[in-house]
Write a structure and sequence with these properties.
Helices cover 43% and strands 17% of the residues. The mean pLDDT is 96.
């Protein structure tokens, strides 16, 4: 009976155009991809600066393995916190301008640890309706009163905050929304946090390394200081080119998370060779204005190239450029047609995005060339 139900539900996903399939990549992360022997240009990756296969990071990882081995052997609070981790945390705090930083294994685990450690029963959480799944799941673990406000709607959030009797208040938002590519109104959110005595947790998974002066992230993009009410989460497997995540905040907040964030306490620390690679990555990010400049040129090229076609681009100023299709099956058909032309662009469907808004999610990186973007533009014009 159980197996029959699973088969039935899988068949329903297939009929609705919602079944997901993996493809095995036969080359390192980069624009040039090979799947099942087929050569492709990939527009799927979040490796926005093209650092995932950069020789400097590879050499730093190799040197880290020679110095520290491969595994950490234990959780951070037992014996797994090695000097490589400590150095990286100090560099991340300095890079973001906060007092302290704390490493996590992934961005998902960071959010699942941070949110329940800060709020619980009797408290209140206010979350943007388009937040990432990790923030949505984190709220479920808190048992706090949960309120979702319409996407980027400061007036609606203000009304919810004013009506709340929560003991502690926490506002949650993505900085760059991963499926739309737009920016949260961070200055307005911080002003509301100050006015209503709330924390503001900013998930900058897609802004860290890309936005702001020297790639210091979305807070720097808006010239926001490292305020005490701000809790900043950045992931390290996207623009930083490796893996993991960190949270940066006031020293007292970080100490509290170190004592109470379950996904930090009860998991083995990440490999020290990753920490060494990330220390090298921070240098490249800080000196990466040329990479970021190339990325913005490619974004402009794509947007201008599709301006006179039927394809509707969302108003994204970031490396994430969604092309709205609408129907699930049509999105899969267009993605399949591109794939046959040697262009790998993922079709994103519900529940990742709202029903009726299936899309192609074009991710541009500094490692792409203008010629590769032209190939995508020509194919999309043909399909239009």
């Amino acid at each position: 009976m159980i197996w029959e139900e699973l088969h039935s539900e899988l068949d329903a996903l297939q009929r609705a155009g919602l079944q997901r399939n993996r493809r095995t990549l036969e080359l390192p992360c980069g624009p040039a991809a090979r799947v099942d022997g087929r050569s492709l240009i990939s527009f799927c990756s979040n490796d926005y600066l093209g650092l995932a296969n950069d020789p400097a990071l590879v050499e730093a990882a190799c040197a880290g393995a020679r110095a520290w081995g491969v595994g950490s052997g234990a959780s951070h609070l037992v014996s797994g916190h090695l000097e490589a981790h400590a150095v990286l945390e100090q560099k991340l705090a300095a890079f973001t301008g906060f007092a302290r930083a704390l490493l996590f294994s992934t961005g998902y685990m960071a959010n699942l640890g941070i949110v329940p450690a800060l709020v619980g029963r009797g408290d209140a959480v206010f979350a943007d309706r388009l937040n990432h799944a990790s923030l949505i799941d984190a709220v479920q673990l808190t048992r706090a009163d949960s309120q979702r406000y319409p996407h980027a709607d400061l007036a609606a959030l203000e009304r919810l905050l004013a009506a709340s009797s929560g003991r502690r208040k926490l506002i949650l938002t993505d900085a760059v929304f991963s499926m739309d590519g737009d920016l949260a109104p961070l200055p307005g959110l911080l002003a509301l946090a100050e006015r209503f005595d709330a924390w503001l947790l900013v998930d900058d998974a897609h802004g860290f390394g890309v936005l702001g002066r020297q790639g210091r992230g979305s807070l720097a993009h808006f010239n926001l200081p490292a305020a005490r009410r701000l809790i900043y989460m950045g992931t390290l497997g996207k623009a930083a080119g490796a893996a993991g995540a960190f949270v940066a905040a006031d020293a007292t907040v970080i100490e509290w998370l170190q004592q109470r964030a379950r996904t930090y306490i009860f998991t083995t620390a990440s490999s020290p060779l990753i920490a060494c690679a990330l220390a090298a990555s921070l240098h490249l990010i800080g000196d990466g204005d040329a990479r970021r400049g190339r990325l913005w040129q490619l974004v402009a090229q794509l947007r201008e190239g599709l301006a006179d076609t039927r394809w509707r681009l969302l108003p994204s100023p970031t490396a994430i450029q969604p092309v709205i299709i609408g129907d699930n099956h049509e999105a899969l058909r267009i993605a399949g047609a591109l794939y046959e032309r040697g262009l790998w662009v993922p079709a994103i469907r519900p529940p990742t995005v709202p029903v009726g808004s299936a899309r192609l999610r074009v991710s541009l990186t500094a490692a792409h060339s203008a010629e590769q973007v032209d190939r995508l533009l020509n194919a999309l014009r043909e399909l239009a």
